[in-house]
Design a protein that fits this description.
The chain is an alpha/beta fold. The chain is 42% helix and 15% strand. The protein has 19 helices and 15 strands. The termini are far apart.
């Protein structure tokens, strides 16, 4: 019979082996890695500056070699062609590129403890989830909200029907030239319109029972949405929503005091802060009972590349992304630099800007932009359906417009290689 101390040592050894096996993702224990001379990170300028500020001495006695790239899109594209010797161990990334990077076998899954998982809202973390595995740690998120002019609307409408009623009255008496300032333009804008779309029961790509995006479930013309779609005709007839209004046009209308409501995101905080009149930032109120007006969530974060293993940096890269970048102070720094809500719930609770907090609250029921490549086939047809059904005189019937969009998206996804 083994001694108590012997059993303790055995239990510790078994536990350590299990951790190593989980990290490697294989059935056998990998040999211990030698400490790498440096950890190579590709990031855009904003996130690179934060990394240099928060990790001036490196991470766990290892120097950080931070390479600044033009954009997160450039990082994703260059990762596909870089020579292994010049490749990064960690990259900054948009969450909606997760599926593309995983399919290309360029990033590795992360193993998160329950404690780490609990640091993030489920909908924010799920942006980096693909095939039931997590591939990145978010550091910030953004979404649309409703900005209301207190000058034109002293009392906040409690329902979307009241929003429409207020807008109609202000248009009729000439105090407003735009009902709800939301940008579309001739080509349409599915992102800007998504909050209204979801509020009517629509969705772009559904999820399976495990919560993974399911490209065979397209919800553009699902029965619930089609039942509620006639409301779009009412909005169009009353000029509440106008496709001719571009994103810039919507902004200018609200800033000029010619629109009572504006749907926009935290990227316009500088303009909002400088407004000469009082305003409120809220969620878009309920349009149809039981249907959340869910804006799309966009997350930025960091991922570990497949090249980290060859560089003998896999273990350190994992720890840096999951533990180093998840800390509340680090997350707050990322949020402050980009003027976005930090992903970490503790860091988010410390945000002092009431405007940014209001945008964050509006994203509580948000849904991540689907992170699979098939989403690229959705934007165009969905935006076109909105533009066609809200272009004023001669607008397409909403049911016909969105049914056509559903067919176009289904065909495009089926044709993908």
């Amino acid at each position: 019979m083994a001694s108590t101390s012997g059993r303790s040592r055995l239990a510790a050894a078994v536990a350590a082996a299990a951790v190593v096996s989980a990290i490697v993702g294989a059935g056998s224990i990998a040999p211990a890695q030698a400490a790498p001379a440096r950890l190579v990170i590709w990031a855009d300028q904003i996130r690179a500056d934060v990394l240099k500020q928060e990790f001036p001495d490196g991470f766990r006695d290892t120097k950080l070699s931070i390479v600044v790239k033009d954009s997160l899109a450039a990082i994703k594209d260059e990762l596909k062609t870089v020579k292994p010797a010049d490749a990064p161990d960690v990259i900054a990334a948009e969450h909606d590129s997760t599926g593309e990077l995983v399919d290309a076998k360029l990033v590795r899954r992360l193993t998160l403890t329950k404690a780490l998982t609990a640091l993030f809202p489920t909908n924010v973390l799920s942006g980096f989830r693909f095939n039931s595995r997590v591939y990145g740690i978010p550091v910030q998120y953004e979404n649309l909200a409703l900005v209301t002019s207190v000058k034109l609307v002293p009392k906040q409408p409690s329902s979307f029907a009241k929003v429409v009623a207020v807008a109609k009255r202000l248009l009729k008496n000439g105090k407003a030239t735009t009902g709800i300032a939301v940008g579309q333009g001739d080509a349409g804008n599915a992102y800007n319109m998504y909050t209204l779309f979801s509020g009517l029961g629509g969705y772009a790509i559904g999820v399976d029972q495990a919560g993974n995006a399911n490209p065979s479930d397209i919800g553009i013309a699902n029965p619930a949405f089609l039942k509620n779609a006639p409301q779009i005709k009412d909005w169009n007839d009353a000029r509440i929503i106008e496709a001719s209004l571009t994103t810039q046009g919507a902004k200018e209308a609200f800033l000029a005091g010619k629109a009572p409501f504006w749907i926009t995101g935290p990227w316009d905080l500088a303009s909002i802060t400088s407004l000469p009149f009082a305003y409120r930032i809220t969620t878009v109120p309920t349009i149809v009972k039981g249907k959340a007006t869910s804006p799309l969530l966009g997350m930025k974060g960091f991922m570990v590349t497949v090249f980290a293993q060859a560089h003998q940096a896999k273990t350190l890269a994992d720890a840096f992304v999951t533990q180093g970048l998840s800390r509340a102070g680090v997350q707050a720094a990322f949020g402050n630099a980009a003027r976005r809500m930090p992903a970490n719930v503790k860091a988010a609770s410390r945000v002092t800007d009431p405007r940014l907090r209001a945008f964050g609250a509006a994203g509580a029921l948000g849904v991540p932009i689907p992170n699979i490549p098939q989403m690229q086939s959705v934007w165009g047809p969905l935006g076109t359906a909105w533009a066609a059904s809200t272009r004023g005189a001669g607008a397409s019937p909403p049911v016909a417009a969105f049914t056509s969009a559903q067919a176009a998206v289904t065909a495009a996804i089926a044709a993908r290689p």
